[in-house]
Amino acid sequence: MYDVQSDSFVFHKGIGKLYKLNSTWNTEHNIAYAARGKFALVDDRRGNPNNFSDGVWQGYWGNDIDIELDLGQPTQVSRLSMRFGQLMRYGILYPRQIEIGISNDGINYQPIETIANNIDPNTEERSIHDFVAALGISTRYIKVVARNPGLLPEWHYAKGNKSWLFADEIVVE
I want to staple 20 with a disulfide (CB 3.0 to 4.6 A). Which of 6, 64, 68, 166 is the partner? Predict the structure, then answer.
């Protein structure tokens, strides 16, 4: 008997539109955490919600995720979402918050949205969550910064160690 593999794709305006990746994913613990390299967050592939080492999820250990997209020309954007996974026992937590900025020149960004995380990290269940911003704007460049939650809290068995961010796809609609 063989395991069944499947892929999930989501088509959107941000596919392949990477301008700059200003942060580094971590491969020190598992090469699968690199996903598909620098384009992993805009490659239209959705990770398996039950397997964060499927080669689609990208892991950032102790780092924020800081990424800039270039849509090529001013484009109407109604919504932006970014998918994350959480598995507390392994120190994989949702971001503290996500900050979204827009720009017409790719240099000077105007902050337009901050999405705070209010999901309790102290849960045993593996979960995934799409952090969503309704935008209704026209822009060429989009900057997304997902803030790492910092060191693992006092109640965690590995307290004081760095936490992970596991990200999947930034979807621009």
Answer: 68
Q: What does pTM read for this prediction?
A: 0.91
Looking at residue 158, its pLDDT comes to: 94
Q: Are 41 and 76 spatial neighbours (Cβ–Cβ below 8 Å)? A: no
Length of the chain: 173
